[in-house]
Amino acid sequence: MVKKILYVIFTIVIVLLFLKFIFYIYEVNLRYIKYNSGRIESAKWFSCFTHDGKRFVGRTNFSEIINESHVNNGPDGFRGERSLNTMMNSPGNKIIFLGDSSTYGYGVDDELIFSQRVEKQLNNISGNKWTSVNLGIPGHKTHEGIYFLKNLVPKFKPEIAVVSYAINDGFRKVYLMQEDGNYNNISSFKWFVDNICNFFIPRESLTYWRLLDSYARLKYYLYLKGKKDLINLSRYTSEDDYKKNLKTIIGMVDTLNAKLIFLLIPIPLDLYPAKKYSADRGMYNKIVEYYNQGKESWNKGDKEKAHYWLLKAAREDGISNRDGSVIYSDILVKIAKEFNVTVVDLRQLFWDLEYKGEDIFFDHNHPNAYGHKLLADAIIKKIKEATAY
Protein backbone atom coordinates (compact mmCIF):
# COMPACT_ATOMS: atom_id res chain seq x y z
CA MET A 1 0.00 0.00 0.00
CA VAL A 2 2.81 2.35 0.97
CA LYS A 3 4.64 1.53 -2.25
CA LYS A 4 1.56 2.37 -4.29
CA ILE A 5 1.18 5.72 -2.53
CA LEU A 6 4.86 6.51 -3.05
CA TYR A 7 4.56 5.48 -6.69
CA VAL A 8 1.58 7.80 -7.19
CA ILE A 9 3.39 10.67 -5.47
CA PHE A 10 6.51 10.03 -7.54
CA THR A 11 4.46 9.97 -10.75
CA ILE A 12 2.72 13.24 -9.85
CA VAL A 13 6.07 14.92 -9.08
CA ILE A 14 7.53 13.74 -12.40
CA VAL A 15 4.49 15.02 -14.29
CA LEU A 16 4.64 18.38 -12.50
CA LEU A 17 8.35 18.74 -13.20
CA PHE A 18 7.74 17.85 -16.85
CA LEU A 19 5.02 20.53 -17.09
CA LYS A 20 7.40 23.04 -15.52
CA PHE A 21 10.04 22.08 -18.07
CA ILE A 22 7.52 22.58 -20.91
CA PHE A 23 6.69 26.02 -19.48
CA TYR A 24 10.36 27.06 -19.53
CA ILE A 25 10.79 25.89 -23.12
CA TYR A 26 7.69 27.76 -24.27
CA GLU A 27 8.63 30.88 -22.29
CA VAL A 28 12.10 30.94 -23.86
CA ASN A 29 10.46 30.61 -27.28
CA LEU A 30 8.16 33.57 -26.61
CA ARG A 31 10.67 35.76 -24.85
CA TYR A 32 13.77 35.34 -26.98
CA ILE A 33 12.60 33.98 -30.32
CA LYS A 34 9.05 35.01 -31.21
CA TYR A 35 8.79 38.35 -29.40
CA ASN A 36 12.41 38.98 -28.41
CA SER A 37 11.15 40.78 -25.33
CA GLY A 38 14.23 40.00 -23.28
CA ARG A 39 13.51 41.26 -19.79
CA ILE A 40 10.53 40.91 -17.47
CA GLU A 41 10.88 44.61 -16.62
CA SER A 42 10.08 45.40 -20.24
CA ALA A 43 7.38 42.77 -20.58
CA LYS A 44 5.25 44.11 -17.75
CA TRP A 45 4.32 47.29 -19.64
CA PHE A 46 2.60 45.49 -22.49
CA SER A 47 -0.79 43.85 -22.78
CA CYS A 48 -0.71 43.02 -26.49
CA PHE A 49 2.27 40.67 -26.78
CA THR A 50 0.18 37.85 -28.14
CA HIS A 51 -1.66 39.85 -30.80
CA ASP A 52 -0.35 38.04 -33.88
CA GLY A 53 -1.15 40.96 -36.16
CA LYS A 54 1.09 43.23 -34.10
CA ARG A 55 4.22 41.13 -33.81
CA PHE A 56 6.30 44.26 -33.16
CA VAL A 57 4.45 45.29 -29.98
CA GLY A 58 6.72 45.12 -26.97
CA ARG A 59 9.69 43.71 -28.84
CA THR A 60 12.92 45.20 -27.58
CA ASN A 61 15.71 46.48 -29.83
CA PHE A 62 13.45 45.79 -32.78
CA SER A 63 13.92 47.22 -36.25
CA GLU A 64 11.91 46.23 -39.29
CA ILE A 65 10.00 47.57 -42.28
CA ILE A 66 6.28 47.09 -41.59
CA ASN A 67 3.68 48.31 -44.07
CA GLU A 68 6.45 50.22 -45.87
CA SER A 69 7.35 52.18 -42.73
CA HIS A 70 10.50 51.84 -40.67
CA VAL A 71 9.62 50.69 -37.14
CA ASN A 72 12.17 50.91 -34.34
CA ASN A 73 11.59 49.84 -30.76
CA GLY A 74 14.14 50.70 -28.09
CA PRO A 75 15.58 48.48 -25.35
CA ASP A 76 12.34 48.73 -23.34
CA GLY A 77 10.01 47.88 -26.21
CA PHE A 78 8.58 51.36 -26.76
CA ARG A 79 8.66 53.14 -30.12
CA GLY A 80 11.95 54.83 -30.93
CA GLU A 81 15.55 53.91 -30.31
CA ARG A 82 15.97 55.61 -26.92
CA SER A 83 15.62 53.72 -23.64
CA LEU A 84 13.27 54.85 -20.87
CA ASN A 85 16.26 55.64 -18.64
CA THR A 86 17.90 57.75 -21.35
CA MET A 87 14.73 59.82 -21.71
CA MET A 88 14.20 60.06 -17.94
CA ASN A 89 17.72 61.39 -17.44
CA SER A 90 17.81 63.69 -20.45
CA PRO A 91 18.12 67.38 -19.51
CA GLY A 92 15.28 69.83 -20.00
CA ASN A 93 11.52 69.37 -20.20
CA LYS A 94 9.53 66.22 -20.93
CA ILE A 95 6.32 65.84 -22.89
CA ILE A 96 4.58 62.48 -22.46
CA PHE A 97 2.36 60.90 -25.11
CA LEU A 98 -0.12 58.26 -23.95
CA GLY A 99 -2.35 56.48 -26.44
CA ASP A 100 -2.91 53.58 -28.77
CA SER A 101 -1.59 52.48 -32.18
CA SER A 102 -2.03 55.95 -33.72
CA THR A 103 0.12 57.45 -30.95
CA TYR A 104 2.60 54.60 -31.40
CA GLY A 105 2.79 55.66 -35.04
CA TYR A 106 1.58 52.49 -36.73
CA GLY A 107 2.25 52.76 -40.47
CA VAL A 108 4.54 55.81 -40.18
CA ASP A 109 8.32 56.16 -40.11
CA ASP A 110 9.88 56.93 -36.72
CA GLU A 111 10.83 60.53 -37.43
CA LEU A 112 7.41 61.35 -38.93
CA ILE A 113 5.30 60.35 -35.91
CA PHE A 114 3.53 63.35 -34.39
CA SER A 115 5.33 62.91 -31.04
CA GLN A 116 8.70 63.26 -32.78
CA ARG A 117 7.49 66.20 -34.86
CA VAL A 118 6.31 67.93 -31.67
CA GLU A 119 9.71 67.40 -30.03
CA LYS A 120 11.48 68.93 -33.01
CA GLN A 121 9.12 71.91 -33.18
CA LEU A 122 9.29 72.57 -29.43
CA ASN A 123 13.09 72.59 -29.56
CA ASN A 124 12.92 75.06 -32.46
CA ILE A 125 10.51 77.53 -30.81
CA SER A 126 11.58 77.17 -27.19
CA GLY A 127 14.71 78.20 -25.40
CA ASN A 128 14.57 74.98 -23.42
CA LYS A 129 15.48 71.41 -24.35
CA TRP A 130 12.43 69.17 -24.85
CA THR A 131 12.21 65.38 -24.95
CA SER A 132 9.17 63.55 -26.30
CA VAL A 133 8.36 60.27 -24.57
CA ASN A 134 6.10 58.12 -26.72
CA LEU A 135 4.30 55.58 -24.53
CA GLY A 136 1.65 54.77 -27.14
CA ILE A 137 0.90 51.05 -27.40
CA PRO A 138 -1.36 49.47 -30.03
CA GLY A 139 -4.58 48.27 -28.41
CA HIS A 140 -4.22 50.34 -25.26
CA LYS A 141 -7.21 52.02 -23.63
CA THR A 142 -7.85 54.34 -20.69
CA HIS A 143 -7.31 51.44 -18.25
CA GLU A 144 -3.73 50.97 -19.40
CA GLY A 145 -3.25 54.75 -19.50
CA ILE A 146 -4.15 54.92 -15.80
CA TYR A 147 -1.69 52.12 -15.09
CA PHE A 148 1.06 54.02 -16.90
CA LEU A 149 0.20 57.26 -15.09
CA LYS A 150 0.47 55.46 -11.77
CA ASN A 151 3.59 53.39 -12.35
CA LEU A 152 5.67 54.92 -15.14
CA VAL A 153 4.84 58.52 -16.04
CA PRO A 154 5.76 60.08 -12.64
CA LYS A 155 9.36 58.97 -13.15
CA PHE A 156 9.65 61.44 -16.05
CA LYS A 157 8.25 64.47 -14.16
CA PRO A 158 6.63 65.77 -17.36
CA GLU A 159 5.61 69.35 -18.05
CA ILE A 160 2.97 68.26 -20.57
CA ALA A 161 0.94 65.07 -21.01
CA VAL A 162 -0.84 64.44 -24.32
CA VAL A 163 -3.47 61.72 -23.83
CA SER A 164 -5.33 60.06 -26.69
CA TYR A 165 -7.78 57.29 -25.80
CA ALA A 166 -11.19 56.83 -27.41
CA ILE A 167 -11.43 54.38 -30.29
CA ASN A 168 -10.20 51.25 -28.46
CA ASP A 169 -12.31 51.96 -25.39
CA GLY A 170 -15.35 52.20 -27.66
CA PHE A 171 -14.59 48.99 -29.58
CA ARG A 172 -16.76 45.97 -29.01
CA LYS A 173 -15.13 42.97 -27.39
CA VAL A 174 -13.58 41.04 -30.21
CA TYR A 175 -11.14 39.89 -27.59
CA LEU A 176 -11.57 40.13 -23.86
CA MET A 177 -11.13 43.25 -21.79
CA GLN A 178 -7.96 43.68 -19.82
CA GLU A 179 -8.22 46.11 -16.93
CA ASP A 180 -5.11 46.85 -14.88
CA GLY A 181 -3.68 43.50 -15.96
CA ASN A 182 -6.83 41.46 -15.25
CA TYR A 183 -9.13 39.79 -17.74
CA ASN A 184 -12.22 40.56 -15.68
CA ASN A 185 -14.83 38.87 -17.81
CA ILE A 186 -13.08 35.50 -17.69
CA SER A 187 -12.51 35.78 -13.95
CA SER A 188 -13.22 32.09 -13.23
CA PHE A 189 -10.65 30.97 -15.81
CA LYS A 190 -8.19 33.59 -14.59
CA TRP A 191 -8.70 32.45 -10.98
CA PHE A 192 -7.80 28.91 -12.05
CA VAL A 193 -4.64 30.10 -13.81
CA ASP A 194 -3.63 32.42 -10.95
CA ASN A 195 -4.25 30.03 -8.07
CA ILE A 196 -3.95 26.51 -9.41
CA CYS A 197 -1.34 27.02 -12.12
CA ASN A 198 0.68 29.86 -10.64
CA PHE A 199 3.63 27.62 -9.75
CA PHE A 200 3.93 26.52 -13.37
CA ILE A 201 2.86 29.71 -15.12
CA PRO A 202 3.87 32.84 -13.15
CA ARG A 203 1.79 35.94 -13.81
CA GLU A 204 4.80 37.95 -14.98
CA SER A 205 5.54 35.44 -17.73
CA LEU A 206 4.55 35.86 -21.35
CA THR A 207 3.13 32.33 -21.30
CA TYR A 208 0.51 33.54 -18.79
CA TRP A 209 -0.74 36.28 -21.13
CA ARG A 210 -0.53 33.95 -24.12
CA LEU A 211 -2.75 31.44 -22.33
CA LEU A 212 -5.38 34.05 -21.48
CA ASP A 213 -5.29 35.47 -24.98
CA SER A 214 -5.68 32.02 -26.55
CA TYR A 215 -8.67 31.37 -24.32
CA ALA A 216 -10.13 34.72 -25.39
CA ARG A 217 -9.68 33.82 -29.05
CA LEU A 218 -11.34 30.44 -28.49
CA LYS A 219 -14.25 32.11 -26.75
CA TYR A 220 -14.63 34.59 -29.61
CA TYR A 221 -14.49 31.78 -32.18
CA LEU A 222 -17.25 29.90 -30.35
CA TYR A 223 -19.21 33.15 -30.14
CA LEU A 224 -19.09 33.50 -33.93
CA LYS A 225 -19.90 29.82 -34.41
CA GLY A 226 -23.11 30.50 -32.51
CA LYS A 227 -23.90 33.13 -35.18
CA LYS A 228 -24.44 35.84 -32.60
CA ASP A 229 -24.51 39.41 -33.83
CA LEU A 230 -21.21 41.22 -33.25
CA ILE A 231 -23.10 44.49 -32.83
CA ASN A 232 -24.59 43.17 -29.58
CA LEU A 233 -21.17 42.61 -28.04
CA SER A 234 -20.46 44.92 -25.12
CA ARG A 235 -17.67 47.45 -25.48
CA TYR A 236 -14.20 47.12 -24.03
CA THR A 237 -14.90 50.02 -21.68
CA SER A 238 -18.46 50.95 -20.78
CA GLU A 239 -19.47 54.58 -21.26
CA ASP A 240 -19.69 55.08 -17.49
CA ASP A 241 -16.26 53.54 -16.92
CA TYR A 242 -14.81 55.61 -19.75
CA LYS A 243 -16.09 58.80 -18.09
CA LYS A 244 -14.66 57.69 -14.74
CA ASN A 245 -11.32 56.82 -16.33
CA LEU A 246 -11.05 60.20 -18.05
CA LYS A 247 -11.76 61.95 -14.74
CA THR A 248 -9.14 59.76 -13.05
CA ILE A 249 -6.60 60.65 -15.75
CA ILE A 250 -7.36 64.36 -15.27
CA GLY A 251 -6.76 64.03 -11.52
CA MET A 252 -3.55 62.03 -11.92
CA VAL A 253 -2.03 64.47 -14.42
CA ASP A 254 -3.03 67.37 -12.16
CA THR A 255 -1.19 65.66 -9.29
CA LEU A 256 1.91 65.61 -11.48
CA ASN A 257 1.58 69.40 -11.98
CA ALA A 258 1.62 68.80 -15.73
CA LYS A 259 -0.39 70.47 -18.48
CA LEU A 260 -2.95 68.00 -19.85
CA ILE A 261 -3.98 67.93 -23.51
CA PHE A 262 -6.60 65.49 -24.77
CA LEU A 263 -5.88 64.53 -28.36
CA LEU A 264 -8.82 63.34 -30.43
CA ILE A 265 -7.56 61.40 -33.45
CA PRO A 266 -10.34 61.13 -36.06
CA ILE A 267 -11.47 57.98 -37.82
CA PRO A 268 -11.50 57.88 -41.64
CA LEU A 269 -14.66 58.07 -43.73
CA ASP A 270 -13.77 54.85 -45.52
CA LEU A 271 -16.83 52.62 -45.78
CA TYR A 272 -14.89 49.44 -46.54
CA PRO A 273 -15.18 47.90 -43.05
CA ALA A 274 -18.98 48.24 -43.15
CA LYS A 275 -19.14 46.92 -46.71
CA LYS A 276 -17.06 43.92 -45.72
CA TYR A 277 -19.79 42.70 -43.36
CA SER A 278 -22.83 44.03 -45.21
CA ALA A 279 -23.95 40.67 -46.61
CA ASP A 280 -25.40 39.48 -43.31
CA ARG A 281 -26.11 42.81 -41.63
CA GLY A 282 -28.33 44.83 -43.96
CA MET A 283 -27.02 48.07 -42.50
CA TYR A 284 -24.62 49.10 -45.22
CA ASN A 285 -27.14 50.79 -47.53
CA LYS A 286 -28.37 53.07 -44.76
CA ILE A 287 -24.80 54.10 -43.92
CA VAL A 288 -24.04 54.81 -47.57
CA GLU A 289 -27.22 56.89 -47.86
CA TYR A 290 -26.20 59.11 -44.93
CA TYR A 291 -22.64 59.38 -46.21
CA ASN A 292 -23.82 60.40 -49.69
CA GLN A 293 -26.12 63.05 -48.23
CA GLY A 294 -23.12 64.41 -46.35
CA LYS A 295 -21.08 64.45 -49.55
CA GLU A 296 -23.89 66.26 -51.37
CA SER A 297 -24.13 68.88 -48.59
CA TRP A 298 -20.36 69.34 -48.74
CA ASN A 299 -20.45 69.93 -52.50
CA LYS A 300 -23.13 72.58 -51.93
CA GLY A 301 -20.86 74.34 -49.43
CA ASP A 302 -22.94 73.45 -46.36
CA LYS A 303 -20.25 72.11 -44.02
CA GLU A 304 -22.49 72.06 -40.97
CA LYS A 305 -25.04 69.84 -42.66
CA ALA A 306 -22.28 67.69 -44.15
CA HIS A 307 -20.85 67.02 -40.70
CA TYR A 308 -24.33 66.22 -39.38
CA TRP A 309 -24.82 63.47 -41.98
CA LEU A 310 -21.29 62.17 -41.54
CA LEU A 311 -21.75 61.78 -37.79
CA LYS A 312 -25.10 60.13 -38.41
CA ALA A 313 -23.45 57.65 -40.78
CA ALA A 314 -20.68 56.92 -38.29
CA ARG A 315 -23.14 56.48 -35.40
CA GLU A 316 -25.04 53.91 -37.45
CA ASP A 317 -21.88 52.04 -38.36
CA GLY A 318 -21.79 49.55 -35.53
CA ILE A 319 -20.27 46.97 -37.85
CA SER A 320 -16.86 48.60 -38.16
CA ASN A 321 -17.05 50.21 -34.71
CA ARG A 322 -17.12 53.77 -36.03
CA ASP A 323 -20.13 54.40 -33.82
CA GLY A 324 -18.00 53.74 -30.74
CA SER A 325 -15.32 56.15 -31.89
CA VAL A 326 -17.87 58.94 -32.44
CA ILE A 327 -19.75 58.33 -29.18
CA TYR A 328 -16.60 58.10 -27.06
CA SER A 329 -15.01 61.09 -28.77
CA ASP A 330 -18.09 63.13 -27.88
CA ILE A 331 -17.79 61.95 -24.27
CA LEU A 332 -14.14 63.03 -24.19
CA VAL A 333 -15.00 66.51 -25.49
CA LYS A 334 -17.78 66.87 -22.91
CA ILE A 335 -15.57 65.78 -19.99
CA ALA A 336 -12.77 68.08 -21.17
CA LYS A 337 -15.17 71.03 -21.27
CA GLU A 338 -16.48 70.19 -17.79
CA PHE A 339 -12.96 70.13 -16.31
CA ASN A 340 -11.48 72.89 -18.49
CA VAL A 341 -9.00 70.57 -20.20
CA THR A 342 -7.43 71.53 -23.52
CA VAL A 343 -8.63 69.40 -26.44
CA VAL A 344 -7.11 68.96 -29.88
CA ASP A 345 -10.10 67.95 -32.00
CA LEU A 346 -9.31 67.62 -35.70
CA ARG A 347 -12.38 65.65 -36.76
CA GLN A 348 -13.84 68.38 -38.95
CA LEU A 349 -10.47 69.26 -40.51
CA PHE A 350 -9.67 65.63 -41.31
CA TRP A 351 -13.11 64.96 -42.74
CA ASP A 352 -13.08 68.14 -44.79
CA LEU A 353 -9.75 67.10 -46.28
CA GLU A 354 -11.10 63.64 -47.00
CA TYR A 355 -14.13 65.15 -48.75
CA LYS A 356 -11.67 67.07 -50.92
CA GLY A 357 -10.01 63.78 -51.81
CA GLU A 358 -6.80 64.27 -49.82
CA ASP A 359 -5.06 61.18 -48.50
CA ILE A 360 -4.51 61.45 -44.73
CA PHE A 361 -4.94 57.84 -43.61
CA PHE A 362 -2.73 54.93 -44.55
CA ASP A 363 -5.42 52.33 -43.77
CA HIS A 364 -8.94 52.18 -42.33
CA ASN A 365 -7.89 53.47 -38.90
CA HIS A 366 -4.49 55.12 -38.76
CA PRO A 367 -3.25 58.54 -39.99
CA ASN A 368 -0.42 58.55 -42.52
CA ALA A 369 2.62 60.85 -42.34
CA TYR A 370 0.55 63.83 -43.56
CA GLY A 371 -2.06 63.10 -40.90
CA HIS A 372 0.66 63.00 -38.25
CA LYS A 373 1.94 66.38 -39.45
CA LEU A 374 -1.54 67.87 -39.00
CA LEU A 375 -1.77 66.39 -35.51
CA ALA A 376 1.67 67.73 -34.53
CA ASP A 377 0.88 71.22 -35.84
CA ALA A 378 -2.40 71.29 -33.90
CA ILE A 379 -0.69 70.17 -30.68
CA ILE A 380 1.99 72.84 -31.05
CA LYS A 381 -0.70 75.45 -31.64
CA LYS A 382 -2.43 74.52 -28.37
CA ILE A 383 0.87 74.56 -26.48
CA LYS A 384 1.65 78.01 -27.85
CA GLU A 385 -1.77 79.26 -26.76
CA ALA A 386 -1.12 78.03 -23.22
CA THR A 387 2.46 79.32 -22.91
CA ALA A 388 4.61 82.28 -23.79
CA TYR A 389 6.12 80.67 -26.93
Structure description:
- The protein has 389 residues and is an alpha/beta fold.
- It has a domain at 83-171 and 237-389: 3-Layer(aba) Sandwich (Rossmann fold).
- The protein contains 16 helices and 7 strands.
- The protein has helices at residues 2-34, 40-43, 84-89, 101-104, 114-125, 142-151, 167-170, 187-196, 206-225, 239-255, 272-276, 284-299, 303-316, 322-338, 347-355, 369-386, and strands at 62-66, 69-73, 93-99, 130-134, 160-164, 259-264, 342-345.
- The strands form 2 sheets. The chain has a 5-stranded parallel sheet with strand order 4-3-5-6-7, with helices on both faces. A two-stranded antiparallel sheet has the order 1-2.
- Strand 1 (62-66) and strand 2 form a beta hairpin.
- It is globular and about 90 Å long.
- 40% of the residues are buried.
Task: List the defining traits of the structure above.
51% helix, alpha/beta, Rossmann fold, 10% strand, two-stranded antiparallel sheet, 389 residues, 16 helices, globular
CATH architecture of the domain at 83-171 and 237-389: 3-Layer(aba) Sandwich
What is the residue-averaged pLDDT?
A: 78
- CATH fold description of the domain at 83-171 and 237-389: Rossmann fold
Q: How many helical elements?
A: 16
| Name of the CATH first level of the domain at 83-171 and 237-389 | Alpha Beta
Main pleated sheet: 5 strands, parallel
User: Segments where pLDDT lies below 50 for 5+ residues?
Assistant: 37-45, 47-55, 174-187, 277-281
CATH homologous superfamily name of the domain at 83-171 and 237-389? SGNH hydrolase
Rg, nearest Å: 23 Å
Order of helices and strands: HHEEHEHHEHEHHHHEHHHHEHH
